[in-house]
Design goal:
The protein contains 14 helices and 13 strands. The chain has a single domain, classed as TIM Barrel, CATH 3.20.20. The protein is an alpha/beta fold. 42% of the residues are buried. A hairpin with a 2-residue loop joins strand 4 (101-104) and strand 5. The chain has helices at residues 9-21, 53-58, 60-72, 93-96, 130-146, 160-168, 170-179, 181-206, 239-245, 247-256, 273-277, 302-310, 324-338, 353-360; strands at 29-35, 74-78, 83-84, 101-104, 107-110, 151-152, 212-215, 220-223, 226-230, 259-265, 284-288, 314-318, 343-346. The strands form 4 sheets. The protein has a 7-stranded mixed sheet, with helices on both faces.
Length: 364
């Protein structure tokens, strides 16, 4: 990466390696971005197509120009870095395996594909799948347009039951687990095998010259193959079912990847933390409290972080409630309780650059 938008790439990369490895450090990793008052110079093409929902997701020139506008008008402080995402929704493996997208202005849904669980056994890697070929072309174009000024993130492929749920529908998949469990297991094996086919190709297209890569949305950077893993379907199943169907798939991924973080979404998912913490190769936990709940800095979630700390894994904690004063106070309380090692704080974009600079210096 060059120094167009940040000057401290090597420092940032080194700090992330410390975080992943939970090496002793004197301050937490912090993602801090602030408006800098500058005027963007990059012109966004095809602005007349903004009502076209699909164009919003597939027009790579416009996507990258939008990111450049943001990078030009914002400063990256502490351990923040510029990265562009070119996702076709959350769980693009469902498209690669034959699903069809429903493009909306603010998200991408997938049409249900299968009428019964036995059809899971028909899933297979298809080099000529339209959306797989399209997404690869998008990645190549985005990488070329980035010109080494910033990372283009590996897209949100997603895995295990979340992909089967996208192709079958969550309610139908619940019945399948009860009525046709072997078909679900067979489908998961195919999903597991294909995940690595897709991930490896994306990594080859988007990794940096020093082997570093970034996974979409979560601002996670690391040497080698990096990914966020998940199973949002976990809120529909028991702890026993989660251990039977999901933990084996996650374990395979964590053993294959160089760096991994699990996205835990909402209070109903908390019951699965003990099983997740037993995966030795999992590096960290990312906690999303869910709508209407206190943000990640709240003491309400210490019982989660206690388990993460006891398992020797890293934390990814986001602050959203109130404002910089409360964020700073809660950040200090977390560091006092758990230490700085393995701690990663994500803050909303600051409107005031001075406040952002004060936050960046909080633990100096």
């Amino acid at each position: 990466m060059n120094n167009t938008y940040i000057k401290n790439w090597e420092s940032v990369k080194g700090r992330f390696e410390q975080w992943w490895d939970r090496q002793m450090c004197n301050k937490p990793l912090m993602h801090i971005v602030a408006s800098n008052g500058k005027t963007a110079t990059t012109q966004i093409p095809n602005e007349s197509d903004t009502e076209n929902a699909q164009d919003k997701y597939v027009n790579v020139q416009r996507i990258i120009a939008g990111y450049r506008n943001f990078f030009e008008t914002h400063s990256f402080l502490a351990d923040a870095f510029p990265v562009a995402s070119i996702d076709l929704g959350a769980g693009s493996m469902a498209l690669y395996l034959g699903g069809e997208p429903i493009f909306k202005p603010d998200t991408v849904w997938y049409k249900e594909k299968f009428s019964n669980a036995d059809e899971f056994r028909l899933l297979s890697f298809d080099e000529n799948n339209y959306w797989w070929k399209t997404h690869q072309s998008m990645m190549k174009e985005a990488r070329e347009l980035a010109k080494g000024d910033f990372f283009v993130a590996i897209p949100d492929i997603i895995e295990n039951l979340d992909i089967l749920s996208a192709l079958r529908g969550p309610q139908n998949l619940c019945y399948d687990i009860m009525d046709n469990p072997q078909a679900v297991h067979d489908g998961l094996k195919i999903i597991d095998d294909n995940y690595f086919n897709y991930y490896d190709r994306c990594y080859e297209l988007l990794s940096d010259d020093d082997s570093s890569s970034v996974y979409t949305y979560y601002q996670i950077l690391g040497k080698g193959k990096v990914a966020k893993l998940q199973c949002d379907f976990n809120v529909c199943i028991s702890q026993e079912t989660f251990r039977e169907y999901v933990i084996p798939s996650l374990t395979k991924q964590c053993r294959y990847l160089d760096r991994s973080i699990f996205h835990l979404d909402g209070p109903d998912a908390i019951r699965h933390i003990p099983a997740l913490m037993e995966i030795n190769e999992l590096n960290a936990l990312q906690w999303t409290p869910g709508w209407g709940n206190p943000d990640g800095g709240s003491a309400n979630w210490y019982h989660i972080y206690d388990q993460v700390k006891d398992a020797g894994k890293g934390f990814w904690i986001s602050f959203e409630d109130s404002g910089p004063k409360d964020w700073a106070e809660n950040a200090k309380k977390l560091v006092k309780r758990y230490g700085a090692t393995g701690m990663y704080f994500i803050f909303p974009v600051f409107k005031n650059l001075n406040e952002a600079q004060e936050m960046a210096a909080l633990f100096d």
